[in-house]
User: What shape does this take?
Amino acid sequence: MNAYDPHRPDPHPSDAQRPGAVPPPPEQPPVPPHAAWPPPAAPAPAPPRHRARRPGALLAAVAVVAALVGGGTGALVEGAYGGGSDGGGGGSAASVTQTSARNGSVGEVAESVSPSVVEINATSAEGESTGSGVVITKDGEILTNNHVVAGSDKVQVTFENGKKVTGDVVGTDPDLDMALVKVDGVSGLKPAPLGDSDRIGVGDEVVAFGSPEGLTGTVTSGIISAKDREVKVQKESGGSGQGGGGQDGRWPFEFGGGRYNGDVGTETTTYKALQTDASLNPGNSGGPLVNMAGQVVGINSAMYGNGGDGASGSQASSAGLGFAIPVNAVKQVLGELRAGND
Assistant: This one.
């Protein structure tokens, strides 16, 4: 047994004792669990789920926007255009601007305008005539056709309530077939507002008032069929109005190369008229043609009666071919009518 020699190398040295061995790193203090790391962030909330718009809802929204835009445009147009002049001088005729915002039914228009419509009976050396008229001022100014009162200085005016008074023919314009009658001493008159005939369009609804065949207060309705129709009529009749001369009591006129209701004679005048299919009959002449806002856009002046070729018809029914003098043309001569010019 060999004795232990402290200077003798260990036959089984440890790794640390081997020559050239790298010493182990110094020991680190223990780290407490989770102490060096922050807590995990809370998960982000899921984005909200949006329900897809249904096509019907989208279309409804588009329709609402379109309606609002359309209404606003109409309001701007209405504000941009003013009504025409009433011709100046004398009483002030009710003059307003056409607006669809106040449009009513035929019944509502009839209720509003009928108190302003009168029947006119004129007598002259050549006979009697019956027509209509419309009150335009509170002090008794009444518009009618020249051929209704031609040859007469005074006429009988019958109001809606049946009251009859005598009226004076103040002025006439044979070139436009218009006349102005004035009644005095009548209270409570309701003037019909004068509209703007330039703004009435083809296809727009209208209501015609008058006393066809002496039936006071008759109302018919239709549309504007055309504008600026050149109509030729007798320039002066002297009493052969709707109840006198002309075929079947109708006022003779020429239109489009055709002759209607008889011969217009040698002295004629031509004006551009509104054409309507509202039923007009003898006695409607001088009555108002009104838009659906209750405003006068024309004065009924000529109508065609059924009967063959139109030159010698004998039937008294309306053919849906009527004409009215545009109210804007009437406004231009209103001052002269008031002054007594003819």
